[in-house]
Design goal:
It is built from 20 helices and 14 strands. It has helices at residues 2-29, 39-48, 50-71, 78-111, 117-120, 126-132, 135-159, 172-193, 213-219, 222-232, 247-256, 299-305, 321-330, 344-347, 353-356, 375-381, 405-416, 451-471, 531-540, 596-619, and strands at 274-280, 309-311, 314-315, 361-366, 386-388, 423-428, 480-486, 508-511, 523-524, 528-529, 563-567, 570-575, 578-583, 588-591. Strand 11 and strand 12 (570-575) form a beta hairpin. Helix 4 packs antiparallel against helix 7 and helix 13 (321-330) packs parallel to helix 19. The protein is globular.
Length: 627
Amino acid sequence: MHNLLKYVLKFNFYWLIYFFVLRLTFLAFNFSYVESDSSLEIFKVFYKGFLLDLSFIAYLVSLNILLLFFNSFFTKPINQFLQSVTHCINILFIFLTSLISAGEINLYGEWLSKINFTALSHFENPSEVIRTASSLHYLITILCIIVGFSFFKIYKSWFRQYKIFNNHSISLKKSLINLFLYPLLLVLMLIVIRGGVQPIPINMSDAYFSNSNTLNDIAVNQNWNFFQSILKNRTNLKGNPYKKFSVEDVEYFKDKFEDTPTSKLEILDIKNPNIVFIILESWSSDCIKSLEGLSGITPNFDTLIDQGYLFTDFYSNGFTSDQGMSSIFSSFPSFPSVNIIQQSDKSRLLPTINKKLSNYQSSFFFGGQLTYGNIKGYLLSNGFDIVKDELNYKHLPSGGLGVHDEFMFNQFLTEINKLNKPFFTTLFTISSHSPYDHPGERNISFSSREDPYVNSVAYTDKFLGDFMRKIKFEDYYKNTLFIIVSDHSHNSPIKRRVAEKERFKIPMLWYGEPIKPQFRGKKNKNLGSHFDIAKSLLNQMDIESSEFVYSRDLFSETKKRFVPFVFPKGYAMIQKEGYYAFSETYNKVIESPEEDEIAKVLKKDTELFFQISFDEYLKLGRKSLDQ
């Protein structure tokens, strides 16, 4: 037991030193990207990635422990064989790590991102890689291999001496101890792999700490990033899984849905208002009476509608919060199997609303963990000036997932008062997410298993109302536009099918003094989704918005509107004529219009959209090495 513990601790220390040296090498060759940052910020890269380093090391330790567990039931020569296998695996990862680091350093100047799944595509043509490599690329590769060889020698010196594989005899007592000991060690390693016992497992965002993308990239463990990228992209190892149509069909789709807006409706009195997003966790239109939902759940939201501008046919494009963020701020699609927000090399290249508002101070506040779905990484890498989550609000009353909404609304008002004007800021609520452990009342019942959810929406609604009443006394209120929208929908007491379009219908309300009086209390009946927020907002501010190619201006007449969305293992599209949904789980159509001709058109349009958008996903961030 003593030797095993010593082996595990020394193994961790060995890899931490290795990662430190490679991180230092990366920094040395890319220092020009961070030389304007403070010494303190640069120093942080060496410890901000500590948990990701440990997480990857725990994978290797777990593999070693499994082999040791099998070894404990045998003696020579099986012991010697398993020892050789273990050493070969560890040595393989030592050299593989040096090659990954070499690839990162060589490609960073071209891509400004860490090596990932996209980079592997270039090795389909190794001659091109060799042809485009410079003398410096070869030098860096040789240097990293030398570092790897040096650590191979250290490995031999440190770990060959441990005789933990030598099992001279087998006894019942020893076997029973091992049956308890090794599974216990594996459980401990699994906890380290997931970064602790917190609700949300470790994510790249845990290493993100700076507004400098390069510093964040250096902090993220290269192995953890590389293998996670491959795992998240394993479904498209053979390219676009939705590809089935010709170039002519693609052109047909693009022509059919070409954005040709006319006669824009201008609803704002001023072109540069402060902008406040309130993103409501999991709010479904089923909870809102004004959207033909259930009564008595959101009386404050319904009151706001009387003086706001409501969108009555509005939908989410996905079913998770991370999907919602990239759809709201970047108007980019999600897919059933991959989400761009979790691909940092791609998501940082997306257009975002805050990038277009270059003279605004941008900020994002959340009472929970922004590491979920790499939301924190997405926000920081896309230039949000201030990003705060529960780590900044440990003094506030919290539940299982984070700070309760009533306290976060009060904190949000305090945070807004600190911002420079004009500001673009967001509060993301949390209490209407399970486990629904908010401190509010639970007196609403529809005799449904969704009653806890419904009461959590009512709780958030109460403090949304309080917040809107309080902020009216602030001097900047008259120049502030509020956009209140849900990140995605949720099951409700109105039982919906998994891909029923009403299952994805959500509220969006624009509110505030910048809205012209004649539009207050009015409703917009255009079919829309998260995608359409960016272009609708920016066009009202007379800011160029063509980068948001999937977005449509909800205040203009346009050629044709459509709403694509994804659900667990499936994809769908809504049009005026109906909607279509296909389940990849069951390999069958689960929602479709009754009219055959309309069904055929919707099916083709849906499949074409996902073919085209997934092609864009694959291309995003990919650069030719000979550029």
